[in-house]
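Summary of Year 1 activities. Much of the first year was spent building the evaluation harness for sequence design. The harness presents a backbone, in tokenized form, and records the residue chosen at every position. We chose the following record to illustrate the format because it has been used consistently in internal testing since the harness was completed.
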């Protein structure tokens, strides 16, 4: 003869284990979603050669509104820099000569400073008198995934990044000049 009081407890165990499995599966699913959301939130897009350049618009120190895609079929050298960055200081004179050399050949140099201090930025610009367009901007570098300076992107007339230079450059380098001439 079966004990009638034991039967409901035994019947409840399978139901409880089914609920436990559903709860465990739900917790695993929620944990996976949480990990993905955190990853997506902190993962920055890093623009590389071959990518379409992120669009932007800035007002330069000369009062011009410039950005992608309105460079009118010209090659763009987009340079990110800061006044406190020694390699940025070192490359500025050659970048200025480079900009002057290629200005009439269909190339534009736009240098965006990430300086937070407007006085430091102005002192740098007054010291070097760059012949290229400059602006202080705190957003565009994030859109490109740039957080080390200097970093430059060579963007063709169609808005495609054709070269990324993730360090200071000697813009008078014959190899770099030959590459630029091949784009013009």
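For this record, the design step produced the sequence shown next.
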């Amino acid at each position: 003869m079966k004990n009638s009081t034991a039967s409901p407890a035994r019947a409840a165990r399978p139901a409880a284990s089914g609920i436990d499995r559903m709860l465990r599966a739900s917790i695993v699913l929620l944990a996976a979603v949480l990990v993905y959301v955190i990853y997506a939130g902190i993962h920055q897009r890093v623009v590389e050669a071959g990518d379409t350049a992120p669009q932007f618009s800035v007002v330069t120190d000369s009062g011009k509104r410039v950005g992608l895609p309105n460079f009118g079929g010209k090659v763009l050298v987009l340079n990110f820099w800061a006044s406190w960055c020694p390699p940025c200081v070192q490359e500025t004179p050659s970048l200025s000569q480079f900009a002057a050399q290629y200005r009439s050949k269909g190339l534009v140099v736009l240098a965006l400073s990430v300086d937070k201090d407007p006085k430091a930025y102005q002192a740098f610009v007054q010291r070097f008198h760059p012949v290229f367009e400059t602006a202080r901007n705190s957003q565009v570098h994030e859109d490109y995934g740039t957080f080390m300076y200097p970093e430059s992107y060579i963007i063709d007339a169609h808005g495609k990044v054709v070269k990324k230079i993730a360090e200071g450059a000697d813009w008078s380098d014959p190899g770099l000049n030959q590459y630029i001439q091949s784009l013009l």
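The beta strands are 56-59, 65-68, 75-81, 107-113, 133-136, 151-155, 161-165. Quantitative recovery figures across the full test set are reported in Table 2.
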